[in-house]
Every structure is written in C-alpha cells, then in structure tokens.
Amino acid sequence: MKQYVVPNALAVTTAIIYAACRILVGIFPDAFFTIAQSWFHGIGFNKLSAESLTMSSLLLGLISSTITAWVVGYIFIKVYKEFTK
Description:
Blueprint: H1 5-27, H2 29-39, H3 55-83
C-alpha cells in the first residue's frame, strides 16, 4: 500500500463532506441545529445563534479540517502498518 493513499483519500473525502455540509447549513440552518442537538446530548444548541457564513470562515474550516484529516490518515496508516508486521 502506498504511504499517502489513505491520508489523501481521507483528506479529499473530508473536504467534500465539509463543503457539502457548509452549503446545506447555509440553506437549512434550523435543520442542522436540530441535528447537532440530537448528536450532542446535554448541550443547549438552542441558546447559540447562527453565525453568518463568511468566505474566510469557510476557507479556514475547509483547510483546517482537510489538513487534520490528512494527518489522522497518515498516523492511522503508520499505526496500521505496525500492527500488521
């Protein structure tokens, strides 16, 4: 297995999902507050307000989540290879 296949695939997948989610949050903000509330028990999302979706926050989130996913994929494949020795 090539060393960067998994990190690259995970990073691209994360970028696609992040972009799709960001678009859907812009279109259906109330639905996503409801979904977030159902995932995080005990946190009152109804007390939070929705921020405006700026291009800078979109780029920051897209870049940081993609880099994080790549690093997670890289670490995962290193650990996986150690366990399969």
